[in-house]
């Protein structure tokens, strides 16, 4: 991709581009990624692993994520840096794997999906509360 070697590029907005997966070869310096209103069905494993200091904001609202296309390694590299993630208006049936590992997450939007098991959302909420108040698990 044209932006891969840009050392100072921190934000990319690729909204409404008919993408079907989160693009690879994103800049190492990227902090803010907006992919709203595409046809994204898949977040490849390790797609964020090379980023330094790490992706902080990921907006994937209004896509076609259903959980099948989110691998256990999809968010590898963003576990400690991600602060906001919007996955609203997709087709998710459960909270994606890896979300509970995100230690800096302050905002998680999951509205307008197909999540039926509230226990999954409650577990993510409890992990967030425990981390905020330093309670032992």
UniProtKB/TrEMBL annotation:
<protein>
    <submittedName>
        <fullName>Pre-mRNA splicing factor</fullName>
    </submittedName>
</protein>
<dbReference type="Pfam" id="PF00560">
    <property type="entry name" value="LRR_1"/>
</dbReference>
<dbReference type="InterPro" id="IPR032675">
    <property type="entry name" value="LRR_dom_sf"/>
</dbReference>
<dbReference type="InterPro" id="IPR043184">
    <property type="entry name" value="ECM2"/>
</dbReference>
<dbReference type="InterPro" id="IPR001611">
    <property type="entry name" value="Leu-rich_rpt"/>
</dbReference>
